[in-house]
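Weekly sync, protein design subgroup
Attendees: M.S., D.O., the rotation student, P.L. (late)

Item 1: inverse folding check
M.S. brought a backbone from last month's batch and wanted to see whether the design step gives back something sensible before we order anything. D.O. pointed out we never logged the input encoding, so this time it goes straight into the notes. Structure tokens as presented (127 positions):
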């Protein structure tokens, strides 16, 4: 039996700088909601940064989906990543470009690893 991956961090931000000498990550412009004036609204660029651990050794697949209200969430991003040890802390930097918000409200985000739900959260869009 394998253990379920654990989410250690989930942040929405403007950017992530990785120091070439140390490998340390610097998170830039963390935000928790989005404000728009006219809808539909397009958010040009954001990063969903996450740190996970307890991933079995080998190849894995991250999927992030988004939905509004009672709609079924649609996949926004799917990407592979590798785990070299269950003890690894894996930082995944997910660039999201031109995300459309049809109206203000609460949008559901589902984060899955290998088709197993890791996190259900939301992003609030205000006018």
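Designed sequence read out in the meeting:
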């Amino acid at each position: 039996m394998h253990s379920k991956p654990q989410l250690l961090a989930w942040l929405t931000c403007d950017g992530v700088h990785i120091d070439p000498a140390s490998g340390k990550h610097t998170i830039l412009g963390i935000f928790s909601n989005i404000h728009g004036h006219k809808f539909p609204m397009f958010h040009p660029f954001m990063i969903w940064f996450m740190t996970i651990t307890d991933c079995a050794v080998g190849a894995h697949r991250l999927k992030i989906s988004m939905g509004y209200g009672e709609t079924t969430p649609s996949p926004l991003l799917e990407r592979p990543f590798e785990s070299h040890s269950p003890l690894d802390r894996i930082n995944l930097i997910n660039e999201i470009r031109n995300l459309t918000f049809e109206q203000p409200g609460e949008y559901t985000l589902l984060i899955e690893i290998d088709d197993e739900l890791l996190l259900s959260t939301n992003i609030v869009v205000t006018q």
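Discussion: The radius of gyration is 16 Å. The chain has no helices and ten strands.
Action: P.L. to compare against the previous round before Friday.
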